[in-house]
Amino acid sequence: MWIRPYLSRRDTLDSVDKELMLDKYLFKNFTKMSKSYFEFLVNRIGPNIQRQDTNMRNAIPVTTRLAITLRYLATGDSFKSLMYLFRMTAYSISTIVPEVCEALIEGLKEYIKMPSQATEWKRVAKNFEDRWNFPHCLGAMDGKHIRTICPPNSGTQYFNYKQFFSVVLFAVTDARYNFLYVHAEVQGRISDVGVFSHTAFGQALLNQNRDIPHCEPLPGREVSTPYVFLADDAFPLTENICKPYTVDLNIGSPKRVCNYRISRARRIVENSFGILASIFRILHTTINVEMKDVQNIVMACAYLHNFLRRNTRAQALYSPPGTFDREDIDLGTVIPGSWQADGERLTDLRVLGRNSTMRAKAIRDEFMHYFMTERGRVAWQD
């Protein structure tokens, strides 16, 4: 059987360049992680992606399978482009990537874990209060459209308001830029509250089945107030979802101050999405695989994000100082993080108007009043 010369030389040249393995800086640029983290992943998922040699040819090594997948996620290069780098067919790569992504999700499942008890949620809230001066906050949430091709026989199910096919990546983050919850199965045509209600997290929260802390007053206040998740106008204002006001926003007004405080704490999720997509460039492309594989590819990126931020040393490699937006408190301005340097952003969910209950509005008003008190205000909010 005739085989193209560059494919027949794969075993002798080794798909993962030996020089690359010896140079830690080149290796990090190629895989977006250190060699030690790469080896950790090899040991963690190796048994699930290992294949047996046959009489016809040797199996592609676990290290090569992982390197192919990480390079695909990091660059968004097509399978045809990667076949020249790794000296194997585009078809082989197209089968390897989904398998490895699925193994990464399973192997790293403990790295994205939603709190299951009120005491765990209160630790999340304490971090938000300490780091972002926002009490009773259980997380910041948002959704982004990830481009895909049109799945067969799907009609306009995945066709969104921006006129391209997509799935929605919905996520909740903690105060430290880590994902608490990720979902990537909602069709692109579904926007705003529909996205939220199509996730297990959203259904549980809307039905009040989530084990979050009971209402209690904000610091120094007397009104019993729920714990909330922060969102933007793409989501509903509810008893447990707080988002900015849209009217009476004169400079110095309490509502404008409250909007600033909400946006300041909610910036966490925007930054998390930003660094995720800047490292894993596949999220900026049109992902040209079957829909179930799209979902696994997107989820694998999220799990890798948390894995690569698991401790201080890992964070220094994955998101060094200057990566995230930061504040100049003296000037009252935001200094953009390095993730914004290329100017590319994931597409937001569509904003639609909707009515809110009086109870939900009263809860947001209580946060507004708190931020205007001596106990709740910060010096730079004016």
UniProtKB/TrEMBL annotation:
It comes from the Eukaryota. Its main location: nucleus. Signal peptide: none annotated. Residues 141-306 form the DDE Tnp4 domain. Pfam families: DDE_Tnp_4. It is found in: Nucleus. GO terms for molecular function: hydrolase activity; metal ion binding; nuclease activity. Transmembrane segments: none annotated. Keywords: Hydrolase, Metal-binding, Nuclease, Nucleus. Its cofactor is a divalent metal cation. GO terms for cellular component: nucleus. Belongs to the HARBI1 family. This is DDE Tnp4 domain-containing protein. It comes from Parnassius mnemosyne (clouded apollo).
